[in-house]
Amino acid sequence: TQGFSGTFAATFLSVMVFFLVSRSIRRCSSSLWTYKRRSLSQVQAEYEKRKRECAEASSLRPVNPLSVFANSEVDLAEIEVYGFDFDYTIAQYSTELHREIYDMAKRHLVEAKLFPKGILDIQYNPQFAIRGLHHDKEKNILMKLDNFLRIEPKTVYRGRTALSQDEVAKLYGGNQVSIVDLDIFSESSANKRVRQFLDMFALPEMTLLCDCTQYLLDEEIPFDHEYLASDVQFVIRKLHTSHAIHDEILSDKERYVNRNEGIVKYLDKLKQAGKKLFIVTNSKFSFVDEGMCYVIGDDWRDLFDVVVVRARKPSFFTDCNRPFRSQHPDSDTTSWRKIVKFEHGGVYQEVFECCCASELPPTCSNVYCTG
Question: Is 85 one of the catalytic residues?
Answer without folding.
Answer: yes
